[in-house]
Amino acid sequence: MNRILKNFSYTFFSNIVSTLISLLVTLTIPRMIGVESYGYFQLYMLYITFLGIFHLGWVDGMYLKLGGKSYDSLDSKLFSGQFKIFMLTEFIISLFSCVLFVVICESTDKMLVLLAASVCMLLYNSNIFIQFILLATNQIKQYASIIILDRLLYLVFVLLFLLFKGNSYKGLLIADLLSRMISLLYAILKNKRLLVSDSYKLSTNFTEIKENILIGYKVTFGGIAGIFITGIIRFMMEGKWGIVFFGKISLALTLSNLMMVFVNAVSMVVFPILKKVQTEDLSFYYRKMRDILMISVFTLMIFYYPVKYVLSIWLPIYSESLHYMSLMFPIIIFNSKTAMLINTYLKVTRKESIILISNLFSLLISIIIGYVSIFIISSPNLAVLSIVASLAIRSILAEKQLCDHLNINITKDTILEISVTVFFMVINWYIKSAISILLYGVVLVIYFVLKRKDIKSTFVFVSKKSK
């Protein structure tokens, strides 16, 4: 238990640092650069979320295979060869992408954004390769140090950019690339025994690579499909209403997703722990973890009110973003459950195909309702709601299949959670005064009363485990 708490503390600290830096950058950049320039910066941030597709499941397969193993037992010959082949592959794809975008792009700004994203591909995926090894083998302290270094460097470079009165997105792209490059070099140096061995067999490595890809491609393509659920609607918005509107919606989405930085990291810590849990105990742990997560998320939703108030004063030009945030803030409810619990459990139980199927189905729904709301009805409100609806469908569909496998019935919980979510959205969309806080407080109290038995049993469980 002490090891788990220590790993959690490393993850918690690194992601608190990462979240605070993201919050600081999110609050500072829109105020310092133009709305259009901020839109191009957000377009870059959207592009880099899709970079994981270019390892084709290689890294995810490796992560699934290594889960629960000891770092010291890893064969340097095997991983050194893989890492070199991996970096060479990413370099070739990156170089080809750069040439392609120079040839086909008509807009200079979009070309620069795509070129930066192509360079980022090599840095991002190579760093993920190392980080996933560390996470799978429970080297959480070192993983946390890489994350903290990367984000601190990013903050320093962004502040330097703003200090010299930079008012273009280009400096922000350079800041991101520099921080990723330095943190990658640091990660390689910290793991040079494993990654820079001169002795390795190509035939053995290619066999291992093939096996990793076959294991991990469902997770990778399922994850990319999951990102496309929101990404495709954002691309449609940019195409229909332009880069300025895209930037404003992206700010609301970024603010709504800030907590996901922490949630995603915790899910990485949970995976190797659950790999060691007896199969018959997984259902019990799922129930408890689910209660802890949902109670925490619904309570944290209260922070919507002070956040919106402060931002309305700090970023008055983005009032439209804050208007839509009342609809988009509940995204954390569905995304946190999917990332921390559902996908983690599906990976542990080797049901990766469920991730792929549920994400592909939800992506199809997203494309249909996004296209109708944007290009046929031309309603920004419905477009934003379609993002939330698509993510809710993904979460509900995947959890239903997982719980059938675990022999758990969570229908009542799901209905209750959807009800609270809808109340939150309706209250804050139509009521702009402080009364909305009181009304959500009442809804939250009702939720706690209805869940009082589960809360009590979960509290007893946590108390016993912490001793």
TrEMBL record:
InterPro entries: Poly_Biosynth_Transport, Polysacc_synth
Keyword hit for tRNA-binding: no
Keywords noted in UniProt: Cell membrane, Membrane, Transmembrane, Transmembrane helix
Topology of the protein relative to the lipid bilayer: Multi-pass membrane protein
Cellular-component GO terms for this entry: plasma membrane
Subcellular location: Cell membrane
Top-level taxon of the source organism: Bacteria
Location, primary (coarse class): membrane
Membrane-spanning segments: 12-33, 45-64, 85-105, 111-136, 143-163, 219-237, 249-271, 292-315, 321-342, 354-377, 429-450
Family matches, as Pfam families: Polysacc_synt
PANTHER family on file: O-ANTIGEN TRANSPORTER-RELATED, PST FAMILY PREDICTED COLANIC ACID TRANSPORTER
Protein name (database record): Polysaccharide biosynthesis protein C-terminal domain-containing protein
Organism encoding this protein: Enterococcus caccae ATCC BAA-1240
